[in-house]
Amino acid sequence: MFRSKEFSSVLALVLALQLSGQGKMATFQLEKTVLLVLLLVQVCAIHAVSADSDSLEKYVDSLPEKNELTSTPNKHSTIFKDAEKLVKEDTNGTTAPNTTVTVVTSAATEATSKSHQLEEKHSSFTIFFILLVLAFCIITTHLLIITKFHYLPESVAVVIVGGIIGGVIKILSSHDLVDLHEEEAFPPTIFFLVILPPIIFESGYNLHKGNFFANFGTILIFAVFGTLISACVVGGGIYLLGVAKVAYPLDLLESFAFGSLISAVDPVATLAIFQALDVDAILYMLVFGESVLNDAVSIVLTNTILAMRRPEMADVSGAVAFFHGVGHFCLMFAASSAIGIASAVLSSVTFKLFDLRKTPSLEIALMLIFSYIPYGLAEGVGLSGIMAVLFAGIVMSHYTHRNLSPITQITVQQTFRTVAFMAETCVFAYLGMSIFSMYHHVKVSFVLWAIALCLVGRALNIFPLSFMANKFRIHKITPKQQFIMWFSGLRGAIAFALSLHIDMEKEKRQVLVTATLIIVLFTLLFLGGGTMPLMTILNRKKTRTKKKKELNLSKTKEMGDTVETTSEHTEAEEIRTVKPHVSKFMSLDQKYLIPWLTRIITAQEVREGQRQMATLTDKWYKEVSQRSTTEESEEDDLQTLISGNSEP
Amino acid sequence: MFRSKEFSSVLALVLALQLSGQGKMATFQLEKTVLLVLLLVQVCAIHAVSADSDSLEKYVDSLPEKNELTSTPNKHSTIFKDAEKLVKEDTNGTTAPNTTVTVVTSAATEATSKSHQLEEKHSSFTIFFILLVLAFCIITTHLLIITKFHYLPESVAVVIVGGIIGGVIKILSSHDLVDLHEEEAFPPTIFFLVILPPIIFESGYNLHKGNFFANFGTILIFAVFGTLISACVVGGGIYLLGVAKVAYPLDLLESFAFGSLISAVDPVATLAIFQALDVDAILYMLVFGESVLNDAVSIVLTNTILAMRRPEMADVSGAVAFFHGVGHFCLMFAASSAIGIASAVLSSVTFKLFDLRKTPSLEIALMLIFSYIPYGLAEGVGLSGIMAVLFAGIVMSHYTHRNLSPITQITVQQTFRTVAFMAETCVFAYLGMSIFSMYHHVKVSFVLWAIALCLVGRALNIFPLSFMANKFRIHKITPKQQFIMWFSGLRGAIAFALSLHIDMEKEKRQVLVTATLIIVLFTLLFLGGGTMPLMTILNRKKTRTKKKKELNLSKTKEMGDTVETTSEHTEAEEIRTVKPHVSKFMSLDQKYLIPWLTRIITAQEVREGQRQMATLTDKWYKEVSQRSTTEESEEDDLQTLISGNSEP
Known about the structure:
Membrane topology (chains A, B): Multi-pass membrane protein
CATH architecture of the domain at 188-540 and 550-567 in chain A: Up-down Bundle
Oligomer: homodimer
Order of helices and strands of chain A: HHHHHHHHHHHHHHHHHHHHHHHH
Strand content of chain A: under 5%
Structural class of chain A: mainly alpha
Radius of gyration of chain A: 27 Å
Keywords (chains A, B): Antiport, Golgi apparatus, Ion transport, Membrane, Sodium, Sodium transport, Transmembrane, Transmembrane helix, Transport
Domain Cation/H+ exchanger transmembrane (chains A, B): 139-535
Region (Disordered) (chains A, B): 623-648
GO molecular function (chains A, B): potassium:proton antiporter activity; sodium:proton antiporter activity
Helix content of chain A: over 70%
């Protein structure tokens, strides 16, 4: 419809796609028109001003020293880093190293100033583009929820939207109509520094701690040994197939690096499928716990294997390297979680010591800072940030959360959820877009074998380990549950980001990145999309003793319905089934840790909290009623509600 | 106390400084000890693992190709950008430009992979350090509020904390104990892309629209002509002093660029002082409105003047250049605010069209996206993002806010406030730290003359323009108010960021950056710190007709006390004093725009909103009571409260 008007811009096209997909949303023709007109205004603005900006760019191009200027700061920052290292190595020197560094820095800043303006403009537009894609994905998610089309998981829908946007950009840019190079927009560094921490923190923060720790042993077995088995199966299989010249050949360490990066089940993708399924809480927790912990395992494993490729490791034997790897892994695991727990305890003590309840802005700000600090510290010192932030989330929701004012509890939880949701959506949209935007190097046999090995690896992980775990468990894992666990081994963004991260020769890397992308998309689309039919089949066989719960693949709806905090009820219920050490910890926790780390809330404070919330709620009613008065609708009804509320 | 234990780490030292400053916070000795122990654990972790990471870095250094590898991606990205431009210029070509770009990109990604790991580690640590500084500043702010030490504005306190941290780092790094190069951490690009948008959006969102638009004419006069006068006085003065060889010589355009960047009164600094003073609403709005709008004026003016230095502008006469500048400015102003308003209206229509109330995560996410989109778009096409985001904030708080669910209204407002607060704190802390961390080139006479010219420029701006404005105003600006307006001309972060941004030869740039920093600190510390005594003197003279309001320089406390939305009451009150066109717009707004852009809230929806809020509040009470039950305190009291609330 827009092509006929000669506005062949990507925005308009994508919008048209979106609107045509609405279907069930009818009637609001007026608003729809406004939406279109306004988007056209924005598109026109881009076109109109791009003439101006083009002239600027041409001017910059015409400058002969332009290339030098753009590259100079980079060179200087290299020099700067070298200088930094020189300073570091010269730890015993008595010369003042500052002068060198300062001079180099100032030279660097000097040269940077010119390119800042252009860089800023470029970054702004990139951010604008990302936000626009995000907005489309959010609306798609919303439409999925309201049309109750539950057979398509949200994550898959977002991947598809991303794919469509990527495809449209590809078509338009091949016809030279736009030049959005979104491949630049999402380097792995951004993924690991900005996207991943909120997702993991949020899953830690909203974790059902009772079930998680009651099953901690089993989860740990699946996460650590399961991932190891899967990594060995995939890595070994890929290596042997390469030697046998059946698939693309990789050397031993490369094979195992690939095996370990592809072995992690993705929490984002898995949660999206599992959170709403009619499975019992234990099975849900097993799959969720495994997916959260094995990210860390996979990241650590991949990095450990890649670290073995260093020259100084070349002369050690396989067994030594293996034990070195195990030691490294254990150290990582322990130190990272220690940082996370220490930082969470610090946050709890800080909130107990400084009463920030009167100033919600300060409280929320400090809470946000404490949610990121463990990641920054752990990554900064070379440990696993994901592990640190997961444990920080778990511990903070148990202690720190209790020290917050009610308004902050709500805001912080909503904010964490929203940020995690946005980060997840970003990831899936990018996965979809990268189908078209990246340069791919497809080795069909390699990809097919890798998929087969992934499925076999997960089977060899789930079934034997379940068998073993059942020997020790009171609550056994049934064969059907095992089958679901095997089937739901979705790979996701973390595997993809890790594959972008690995350092190999160009061609091999491209093959691996492409293979990873295809495997991720395969598991998302087929295993993720196939979960619903599978559940239907399994449910048909099952005698329906429980009250029928509507199957729902929307994670967001589930999250949005009620804002649930960590309820103590269910934790208490679980105590009888848990092992003695867990219940021991829980009584210890009730006796010493909770009183010591959390603030005692006096009746006075409860009253203040109630007043604070009542003020907020009342204000909303008053605003609504004022508007309704002018609109002359249901006035009396509202007045009753307000008076009913303001006298609690 | 830590030095004796040989832990001469910066973290511990800063902590010690913080704790010794607590003074009035006593008794919690146990928690304090835990705080120290935990921080020591973190410090130890850094020390322990830094050995490991050092070896990694040494290994990387030992690689001969390391330097090449680090610089290669940069070179490649330059090539990439060039390729991009080639593609752009070749708009009529029939060759498929994608292939080139893709090949170059993949080559670039190939080479980047190795340096990613180190870059990530470095960035993580930088983020950790920034967050740590922020946390200290937040606690300082909190201590300022609870100790009721109102004579020190929060912004000044944060600058001082920043200065202390910067000084400690300087001392430690000169003794070669740490190497935190925070000068890298805050490039102007980050300031303009991350720090500034939330501050300006928040001030637009929480603006008192009635007073703002009632005084819009006067505000615009101060913001545009006032800033122009000040820029001319400072610029002309600096140029003439340079010609007369009294101060550091700058050429004409450089002088005026400096004049315009230093002329903008900073909203962040001004708000921190003004928001809690016992001045009437009109004066407050005049100063606030001026400070918000003249940022945009100053940024546009500076960029326009710098644009005139381009070669193609060299052959035009002064008058043509002047009119070109005026035209450019008007276009900027109109187009930027149009983008902001269009985007806000789009957001309002989107929220009306798609009912996201059931899924707060989606709602909040979309709201956050819409708050940034105008900035990204405007900056991306070369317009003023600050202007766009200001108007978007104003319009969104008027229309979009009404379409949100109560929980989202609260969360979004708290989140905007918190993010803006964190951004402001970042800015002031950085200003403080840059006293020590940057390389300074102080020209004493230049700085002194510049300060004098700033004061004179502001006097020549405020007094004549107030005289002129009073001719048209019903509500006159009294001489005392004019004096306060003159005195409160604080310069802030925007001026400093602009000075880092300008492109000049190295020495001149350093002189200007240093001068700007000193002027900013001078106005913050002396004018900002002197406001309280000045107000006391003025208040002593004044007959105390009004009920005495406690003087309070804490902006955060003011913000935190009540969460205020845009109340209709005061807007209605103002109608009688406003000019006819404003009241005309307001009736138009009530009749057409509000019904058309906002959703009609049915009694059903109000009940749902009430239920949603009640659920949240109840849950909090239940949690609190459960804890209290185990602690056996005030049980009955709480039970009464809960039952009282759950039956509204």
